[in-house]
Design goal:
The structure is a single chain. This protein has three helices and five strands, in the order βααββαββ. The radius of gyration is 15 Å and the shape is globular. It has a five-stranded antiparallel beta sheet with strand order 1-2-3-5-4, with helices on one face. A hairpin with a 3-residue loop joins strand 2 (66-73) and strand 3 (77-84). It has one domain: Heat Shock Protein 90, CATH 3.30.565. Helix 1 (21-28) runs antiparallel to helix 2 (34-58) and helix 2 runs antiparallel to helix 3 (108-115). By secondary structure, the chain is α+β, with helices and mostly antiparallel strands.
Length: 152
């Protein structure tokens, strides 16, 4: 990282608190060159927001639980880690939307995978850890999402 920046955010595990993600992430990304920041900020913010809402909606957080966010900017990627003390996520139980079949829910992780270059999940110390990475150095054009379904 090139300068001291606000790399951590802690919020109460409720839907009102996710409003803090956008301003925090914008401040974190100030360390990037302007054009790179503009190209990255909205997609990464949406991806982090979706992960946070999935935690709030599905992890059965204990009362007064907090969700922790940390960010790291390297020469090759921006990585955001999201940790919570909730119930385990079971990747094999994930509902994947089926084309042509209407449904109101189940698009969150599919959307996140489209917005980031890597989405990882693991269970650590009785909690969950999600890792979202957007590569800084990539060919112009579309993200391939080749690691998008990977779970660490």
């Amino acid at each position: 990282m090139t300068r001291e920046m606000p790399t951590d955010l802690v919020i109460v595990g409720n839907s009102l608190s996710v409003r803090k993600i956008g301003p925090w992430l914008s401040e974190v990304l100030e360390a990037l060159p302007t054009e790179e920041r503009k190209a990255m900020v909205s997609g990464l913010e949406l991806a982090v927001h979706e992960v946070a809402m999935n935690i709030i909606d599905h992890a059965q957080l204990p009362p007064s639980a907090v969700i922790r966010f940390s960010a790291d900017i390297t020469a090759v990627a921006v990585e955001v880690t999201v940790s919570d003390p909730g119930e385990s996520f079971e990747p094999e139980d994930e509902r994947v939307p089926i084309a042509g079949v209407p449904q109101e829910r189940g698009y969150g992780l599919l959307l996140v995978r489209k917005l980031v270059d890597h989405l990882g999940y693991c269970r650590v110390d009785g909690g969950n850890r999600w890792t979202l990475r957007v590569n800084r150095t990539r060919p112009t054009g579309h993200r391939t999402g080749e690691a998008g379904r990977q779970h660490d």
